[in-house]
Specification:
The protein is mainly α. It has one domain. Helix content is 74%, strand content 0%. The chain contains nine helices and no strands. The protein has helices at residues 2-24, 29-51, 57-60, 62-77, 79-82, 88-110, 115-136, 151-167, 170-191. Helix 2 packs antiparallel against helix 7 (115-136), helix 6 (88-110) packs antiparallel against helix 7 (115-136) and helix 7 (115-136) runs antiparallel to helix 8 (151-167). The termini are far apart. It is a multi-pass membrane protein. Pfam families: Gly_transporter (PF03458). Residues 5-78, 91-164 form the Glycine transporter domain.
Length: 207
């Protein structure tokens, strides 16, 4: 049950972030809806493809799409109130990432994946929707940007879930992994944590 709740929360957070990006880019209502829904369910679709679930759950059953539609609509209606917070998209993205990192790993584990595969599927689920969103609006995906941590918190959250699930109750792994991934991502945003880049003298600037 907790796994299902986390999955829906992840969809809602990512769909909301997609809607916020679409509004900032000046999309019409159809574009806002499309980007919100694709962002919300994109990670889950990639997860299901990796796990051999055909058709993917997100398009086979109505709840996931419905959650994405509702979250997109709410975000659109509330945009005037929340878009003034400059980091609202990053915050929504961080929360969604934490939910998806563990729920994706849990779904993979429940379908017989090894702990290693479960961690990788959790990571992919966490970053998939954000990558789809950023590519569609022609931005460098957060995964590739050197500004702050993104994939690392998702990887840590998914790994934490897998370790705890191996030794104890699944709900503990889901809770601890989700909180850890989200907190690490938010802390990275607040404190500017980042991984080292390559040699600075080899970075090519804009022409």
């Amino acid at each position: 049950m907790l796994q299902l709740v986390l999955n829906y929360l992840g969809i809602a957070m990512f769909a909301s972030s997609g809607a916020m990006v679409a509004i900032r880019k000046g999309f019409d209502l159809f574009g806002i809806a499309a980007l919100g829904i694709l962002t919300g369910v994109g990670g889950g679709v990639v997860r299901d493809v990796f796990l051999g679930i055909h058709p993917p759950t997100s398009i086979q059953h109505w709840p996931n799409i419905t959650v994405a539609v509702v979250a997109t609509a709410v975000a659109t209606l509330a945009a005037r109130h929340v878009i003034r917070f400059n980091r609202i998209v990053l915050t929504l993205d961080a929360v969604g990432m934490g939910f998806f990192a563990t729920s994706g790993a849990a779904i993979a584990a429940d379908r017989g994946a090894s702990w290693f595969a479960a961690v990788l599927v959790g990571l992919t689920t966490a970053i998939g929707g954000g990558i789809i969103r950023d590519v569609l609006v022609r931005e460098i995906p957060l995964l590739m940007r050197p500004d702050d941590l993104y994939a690392v918190p998702a990887l840590i959250g998914a790994t934490t879930y897998a370790v705890i699930d191996y030794f104890g109750p699944q709900w503990v792994g889901l809770t601890v992994g989700t909180v850890l991934a989200t907190v690490l991502r938010l802390a990275g945003l607040v404190f500017g944590w980042r991984l080292p880049t390559g040699p600075q003298d080899l970075i090519v600037g804009d022409p």
